[in-house]
Design a protein that fits this description.
The protein is an alpha+beta fold. The protein folds into two domains: 222 residues, D-Maltodextrin-Binding Protein, domain 2; 213 residues, Periplasmic binding protein-like II (D-Maltodextrin-Binding Protein, domain 2). It is built from 17 helices and twelve strands. A hairpin with a 2-residue loop joins strand 5 and strand 6. The two termini are 20 Å apart.
Length: 452
């Protein structure tokens, strides 16, 4: 497999930079020097408007980190901070150009998935030394999502949980009321129970244009849920140390065979290979589907739209992904390496500050779901859907393996599903090909990674 020119150039540049960063510098345990002028650049994706109220008049994407900067510079008057918000579609181009000219930001706040490759390239500084000894306020599974190799590079701040959302009205009409969870609780189901639900919905709901389940794989946006659903029988996508793709594990192949059988039986809407997350969710919102995958942010948007009359109202419940799984898109801060070790130390302290300060971490509740149990308890009762989704944290399964080149792996996964749905490949062949091609991709990434 040919390496991309940009990736190779960055690897060379960052390897050279890493040698500089490894020179003796400020000790992690030492006090920060307050007699030296430090300028930090903080970049954030366009994720969170406002400080503690997204709906505040004039709210901007830079507001939260400008407020963090204001409080931080009160403690460290020698520090100046510039905050920039960039769109996710511009992130790679901006960062790659900045790294090649040694003008990378000091702090970046985004999803872990979007920035993992920079840890492999040696562009990020490990954060293990700034993590408080008592880690119990955050689920261990969420800490693991911030680890690449064997080091922590992302400080968990918030998460967008992935579960299944169901239209309770269809379940009641189909005689499936008994499987619905009590109000305020997350439902759980085995694969066998879920398959029986699909079969019963198909047999008993005969509305025009209705299908029991939504599924989509038109583009790489399908990776999170399709990856997780493949593991419904306990199979894996990556081996234990994420050095290879093992998607042709018999249990994972069985997962693909089952998904294909659901499509063949008419449990899934027609042509899932050309369906997107947006089009599938619109079918659910328009009462054409009984079950759909959802993130916490989209589920909350549905409730707001029902309340505002944007879409017809109906009762909903939330379940684990079949096989008692959930997934989490983790949001957190990371620190880019710099030639000035004191600048890196202040950047780490900035990340530690907004990730642990009692006031500042409450903002995680307006971004997505908080990762801290203490914040969850504080906001409990404000929104029932959020309360239910918080119950999914113990079932989180990592879908990326924190492999290098995961973004490129996404571009292998959805065509695999397309080939199966269209009959171009049988499940075994498709998964064999995915395992082979993805392992090549991982090996290429590991050869460039400074973590292996």
């Amino acid at each position: 497999m040919r390496k991309t020119r940009t990736h190779s150039i960055l690897a060379l540049v960052l390897t050279t930079m890493l040698l500089t960063f490894m020179l003796p510098g400020i000790a992690e345990s030492a006090g920060l020097p307050t007699d030296k002028q430090i300028h930090l650049t903080v970049m954030t994706n366009t994720l969170m408007k406002g400080v503690f109220d997204t709906n505040a008049e004039g709210a901007e994407y830079t507001d939260y980190f400008n407020y963090v900067a204001e409080r931080f510079t009160e403690m460290y008057p020698n520090v100046t901070i510039e905050v920039q918000a960039i769109n996710g579609s511009e992130r790679a181009a901006i960062l790659n150009t900045a790294l090649q000219s040694d003008k990378q930001p000091d702090v970046f706040f985004d999803t872990v998935m979007a920035l993992t490759d920079y840890a492999h390239l040696g562009a990020l500084a490990p954060l293990d030394a700034i993590v408080e000894e008592d880690r119990s306020d955050i689920e261990e599974g969420l800490w693991k999502l911030g680890i690449v190799g064997d080091q922590l590079f992302f400080y968990p701040f918030a998460q967008s949980t992935g579960v299944y959302q169901v239209n309770r009205d269809f379940f009641v009409r189909a005689g499936l009321a008994d499987i619905l969870p009590p109000e305020g609780e997350l439902g759980k189901w085995t694969v066998e129970e879920y398959e029986n639900v699909l079969k019963t919905l198909k047999a008993n709901i005969t509305d025009d244009g209705f299908y029991p389940m939504g599924f989509y794989c038109a583009n790489n946006q399908s990776d999170q849920f399709s990856n997780t659903l493949l593991k419904m029988y306990g199979g894996e996508i990556f081996n234990e140390d994420s050095s290879a793709c093992i998607a042709n594990d018999p249990l994972t192949v069985k997962g693909m065979e089952t998904i294909k059988s659901w499509a063949d039986a008419g449990y899934i809407q027609p042509s899932p290979e050309s369906a997107t997350y947006i089009t599938t969710r619109e079918m659910f919102r328009n009462k054409q589907l009984a079950v759909v995958s959802t993130s916490s942010s989209n589920a909350l948007a549905d409730l707001y739209d029902m309340q505002g009359g944007v879409i017809p109202a109906f009762d909903v419940s939330y379940f684990t992904i079949p096989g008692n799984q959930s997934l989490s898109m983790l949001y957190g801060g990371c620190v880019f390496q710099q030639k000035d070790p004191e600048r890196v130390a202040f950047a780490k302290e900035f990340v530690r500050f907004f990730s642990t300060d009692e006031e500042l971490v409450t903002a995680s509740a307006i971004l997505a779901l908080p990762v801290r149990q203490s914040v969850m308890e504080k906001v409990a009762g404000e929104n029932q859907a959020a309360d239910i989704m918080m119950q999914a944290s113990p079932y989180v399964k990592d879908f990326t393996g924190n492999i290098p080149n995961y973004v490129e792996f996404r571009n292998l996964l959805y065509p695999t599903f397309q080939a199966v749905f269209t009959g171009l490949k049988d499940p075994q062949t498709a998964m064999d090909d995915l395992a082979h091609d993805a392992t090549e991709l991982i090996e290429e990434g590991r050869s460039d990674s400074v973590l292996f």
